[in-house]
Every structure is written in structure tokens, then in C-alpha cells.
Amino acid sequence: MMHGVLHKYFHWGAIASLVTLIVWCVLWETVVAPLQPGGSWVVLKAAPLLIPLYGVIKRDVYTLQWSSMVILLYFTEGVVRGYSDTNATSAMMAWGEAAIVCIYFVCAVLYLRPYKKAAKRMAKELLEKVNKVSIKK
Questions:
Q1: Residue 45 to residues 19, 57, 63, 98, 110: CA-CA distances in angstroms?
Q2: How many other CB atoms are found less than 10 A from the CB of residue 29?
Q3: Is there a contact between 101 and 94 (Cβ–Cβ < 8 Å)?
Q4: CA 99, CA 76: separation in Å to the nearest integer?
Q5: Among its keywords, does the record have Transmembrane (predicted)?
Q6: Virtual torsion, Cα 40, 44, 45, 49, nearest 10 deg
Q7: In whole angstroms, what is the distance from residue 126 CA to residue 137 CA?
Q8: Cα separation of 17 and 100, whole Å?
Q9: How far is CA 84 from its chain centroid?
């Protein structure tokens, strides 16, 4: 029972952190610490995050898999800008971005863990069946 509850929390954690990251990026580049006064085109970096949102909400395993890898680009941006931005507010926003990405990554990976175990188990069973058929011939 606890496994089911944790599984649900990991799913909700992935959704919440992805939505938070989208809002965080938009606010960062428009209001809090834009690269240029009044905002810039950098706000468009939040747009690709909308692509996996529907799949994450619908618990699509494939979407969660590829998005957990793509999201690492945002982690990289957060770390690079956290170290290099001269504006302290922007650097703080960058570290916040990296932290949100870490939350998403951990939630997505832990949500996918039972699916990966089941796939390994099924592959092993199939391989055993194939080997039995090969031996009989």
C-alpha cells in the first residue's frame, strides 16, 4: 500500500515541479531579473517545457523518460548562470531553477522505477522462453 502512495506522490511531485519550473522561468525572464529591462526573448526558454506537460500529467511513461533527460539542459543553464551571472537576483533565480530541476528529475526517476523493474522482469522471462525453445530444437 505504501508503495502505491509513494508512487502517487512522485507523480504529483513531477507535475508540481514541472509547472513550477515553467512559472519560475517566465517570472525570472520577465519580472524578477530579466537580461534586459522590460524582458527579453529569453523567456521563450519556458516554451519547450510545455511539450512534456500533458504527458507527465497523463502518466505517460515514455514522456517521463525522455523529459527526465531533456530537463537536465535546464539544470545546466541554472548552474552556469548561477556561477556566472553578475546580478545577484538572477544568480539566485538560476540556483532555484537548478533545484527545481533536481526535484523533477528525482520524482520522475522514482516514479518510473517500478516500470523499469517490470520491464526487466518481462525481458528476462521472454529470454528464458526463447532459450527453452532453442534448446528443444
A1: 14, 20, 19, 14, 26
A2: 22
A3: no
A4: 11
A5: yes
A6: 150
A7: 17
A8: 6
A9: 24
Distance from CA of residue 51 to its chain's centroid? 12
* Residue 12, C-alpha cell as written in the block: 504529483
Q: Which of 55, 56, 54, 35 has the alpha carbon at shortest distance from 45?
A: 35
Q: Which three cell numbers stand for residue 61?
A: 511513461
87: left (phi over 0), alpha (psi -120 to 50) or beta: beta
Burial of 92 (0-12, 13-18, 19+ CB in 10 A): middle
Residue 102 cell numbers, joined? 533536481
Which pLDDT tens digits describe the chain residue by residue (137 residues)? 346 888 899 999 999 999 999 999 999 999 999 888 887 888 999 999 999 999 999 999 999 999 999 999 999 999 999 999 999 999 999 999 999 999 999 999 999 998 888 877 888 777 777 777 666 65
CA 50/CA 37 separation, integer angstroms: 25
In the structure grid, which three cell numbers stand for residue 22, read together?
515553467
